[in-house]
Amino acid sequence: MTDRWVETLEEQAREVLPEPVHRYFRQGARDAVTTDEATAAWDRFRLLPHALRDVTEVDTTTTLLGTTLRSPFAVAPTTLQRAAHADGEVGMARAVAEAGSLMVLSSNAGSTFEAVAETGAAWWLQLYLTRDRKVCEPLLERAIAAGARAIVLTGDTPVVGTKYDGPGDHVWEVVDPAWLRVNFPAGYGLAPGDLKATDLSTDDIGWLRERSGLPVVVKGVLRADDARRCVDAGAAAVWVSNHGGRQLDHAAATADCLAPVVDEVAGDAEVYVDGGVRNGRHALVASALGAQGVFLGRSPLYALATGGPAVVVGLLDELRAQLAEALQLCGTTSPHAASRDLLQAGPDVGSRSPV
After folding, report:
1. Which sequence positions are flagged as catalytic?
2. pTM above 0.90, yes or no
């Protein structure tokens, strides 16, 4: 592998995936403006490294809701992992376990919770609440019994954002129905109450906490006021995310939303981020802005497609090595020690103040 092999993962995946599957993985909502801007938002940051600092020992570990990870990098929930590789979520979980990371399992997963749990990976359940909340209870019970450590409530998907799919076969015309929603009871999706809830509220956070007994993370938060509402309602963490640009096009970049959310809830809840993170430098910026965890969506999918679990392990290890180097070169010994004084333009750098 070349030194920059991580940057070529999407192109490698394009060569091995069926075209409709690759298109589905990479597409954003409507004109994909938010998707296309995501990585550039992190790249706009410039760093002010400290000099004459002892960086002989660098510690990249972090802890997310009590689980220790070798680095802040973790795997976000994505569906159709079995379309990327025959092992699907089980292969992803094996990689996560070997790399000392954590994964969030989509409620639409094509592998059973029990099979994922057998790998020994630390995992959380991502959940779309249904109009009839009771429909979710069997899924919750099964996940809890299989060892899920937290529930991630997706808060930005009352309806699915429109995507311009383009010519050719649609992904749902070429994938096997067995590749998703295997953990739901038989018959799920046939009743009106099975549809995604359009009446989500902060009351659902308390309901999930009480029903599951697990910490609740709210994913899809871009605003500081929403972060405060979630934490006041009992969320253990808020996850700054725009769904990879797959929901509302022209939504703000997560790199630009992170600092205000951290400022609002720091000390009261953990804060995570995803969206366009592609290297260790991006993770250093996220850490300096206050993120405790940095989640990856498309990159692990592409890695799984190109070479299975081994390449996912390679991706997570390479990103951890990049982060360690960036920390050393910034005169900082851990992500937790990184602060905003490393960022030249401060927390407002971004589309409003390009570097």
Report:
1. 243
2. yes
